[in-house]
Amino acid sequence: MTTETSALSGVASLELDPFSDSFLTNPYPAHEEMREAGPVFWLERYELWGVARYSEVTQVLVDHETYVSSRGVGISDFAKEKPWRPPSLLLEADPPHHTKARHVVSQILTPKLLRTLKEGFQERADELVARVAARGGEIDGVADLAEAYPLEVFPDFIGLPKEGRENLLPYGSMVFNTFGPRNSHFERAMERGAKAQGWIMEQCQPGAPARDGLGAKIHAAAAEAGYGAEDQAKLLRSFLSAGVDTTVHGIGNALECLARNPEQFAALREDPALARAAFEETVRFSSPVQTFFRTTSRDTELSGMAIPEGSKVLMFLAAANRDPRQWERPDEFDIRRKAAGHVGFGFGVHACLGQMLARLEGECFLSALARHVDTIELAGEPVQQLNNTLRGLDSLPLRLTAA
Amino acid sequence: MPKITFVQPDGLENVVDAEADVSVMRAAVASGVPGIVAECGGSAMCATCHVYVDAGNLDGLPELGDVEDEMLDCTAAERLDCSRLSCQLPATRDLTVRIPPTQV
């Protein structure tokens, strides 16, 4: 890998491809290379800027007026290219429009509401984990646990029908793949996701979700705020895009981390109250969402480097979450550390709206694991599911002993 | 450097020198002050950095926003007139805040 410093700007220029199979399989050596290249660097292949240190990533996240989202949070600049789907009112919008749309959701999805869900979410995690652990033999931590749990509790919470829920995974995978370049992951995801898209859009229509679920509440609040049917559907679409694959990967990655670090699982077993912290540490150490883009709305400067208007800036969230300038022992998975402050859920006005729901799911699942499972070990090599944005597993062969 | 005084529920005080341009929450977390959980890291989403602002310090604070107002309805400890989320308070001057008995 060569690092050249451009004579013009003094910015390190890197040849690496952050969307190649080798990078996506194991991004960590390249994360280090990027952090050490400088506070800001140039990615030659795609002609865009990158930031991989904690300080610069948070500066870009916080300054939403300079680093806008309305021109797309993927590699494509909506000012120059038509997006493949109508832009999200939340993810791909700027204040003041974004502020209004976000408030529709944040006033409903409050910590208070989530507290009322805890008992039910915990019961279902206990039931699932106890059943799978009792089965004995080899299991797939992804299909049997990491996918099974969110696919049960999340669609029920939204008010989706039982039939067709399998569409949620390919749809989410497609959305996150399309933030990257048009490589093989992008193309394959579009093929697989196209079938799911029809079902997803049907479920998003006002009147489609069950009356007592979150989906109907979002539609009602959106209508009250003055949004028409099309925008009401778009607001719910955000949940179905971002709410499943992410938590599936969070739980799958947690299982892998605990299987690879038996002393950490022992600590969790000893004190199941560490479940929430263990999930938080997973999101730092093995971030399900690895990257997001912004676009500069004006000429600007970041850590002394000039960045012109209309530039795409790629934030390596997962690299910031292991930046030694911010974290002690960044490459150690330690469920007792204070992981709060990581940028695995982003930060600022676009911080993940579902983060408290994700924490609830992660906590309930890992608490159940701590109480129903005695030992957890790898029964084979985990297989990564390569995605242009997400980091997670396709399969995770495990052997569990029931407690 | 502005001094932020955190008064624990048992009356013990932690006095922290806040760095420039940080929130009261960040100042607490940076110094490991107990009782400020700040799970969401400062995005006003978790209501776990709740503080009671000392009566004499209320003037001159930024106004309560809609989102912060709704979050304060979700705090684990009782909401009082002087309740704020410390992630929304800039540490620009000396300030005394009390930490509630619970955040989660």
Automatic annotation (TrEMBL), chain A:
PROSITE patterns in alphabetical order: CYTOCHROME_P450
Record's keyword annotation contains Hydrolase: no
InterPro entries registered for this protein in UniProt: Cyt_P450, Cyt_P450_B, Cyt_P450_CS, Cyt_P450_sf
Entry keyword annotation includes Metal-binding: yes
Superkingdom as given in the UniProt entry: Bacteria
Keywords from the UniProt entry: Heme, Iron, Metal-binding, Monooxygenase, Oxidoreductase
GO molecular function ontology, one term from the record: iron ion binding
Coiled-coil stretches noted in the UniProt entry, renumbered to this chain: none
One Pfam family recorded for the sequence: p450
UniProt xrefs under Gene3D superfamilies: Cytochrome P450 (1.10.630.10)
Family as reported in the entry's similarity comment: Belongs to the cytochrome P450 family.
Protein name in the entry: Cytochrome P450
Organism: Arthrobacter crystallopoietes BAB-32
Lineage of source species: Bacteria, Bacillati, Actinomycetota, Actinomycetes, Micrococcales
UniProtKB/TrEMBL annotation, chain B:
Keyword annotations of the record: 2Fe-2S, Iron, Iron-sulfur, Metal-binding
GO terms for cellular component: cytosol
GO biological process: P450-containing electron transport chain
Required cofactor names: [2Fe-2S] cluster
InterPro entries: 2Fe-2S_ferredoxin-like_sf, 2Fe-2S_ferredoxin-type, Adrenodoxin-like, Adrenodoxin_Fe-S_BS, Beta-grasp_dom_sf
Protein origin, superkingdom: Bacteria
CDD domains per record: fer2 (cd00207)
Gene Ontology terms for molecular function: 2 iron, 2 sulfur cluster binding; electron transfer activity; metal ion binding
Domain 2Fe-2S ferredoxin-type: 2-103
UniProt cross-references to PANTHER family, sorted A to Z: FERREDOXIN-2, MITOCHONDRIAL (PTHR23426:SF65), FERREDOXIN/ADRENODOXIN (PTHR23426)
Family in the record: Belongs to the adrenodoxin/putidaredoxin family.
Protein name: Ferredoxin
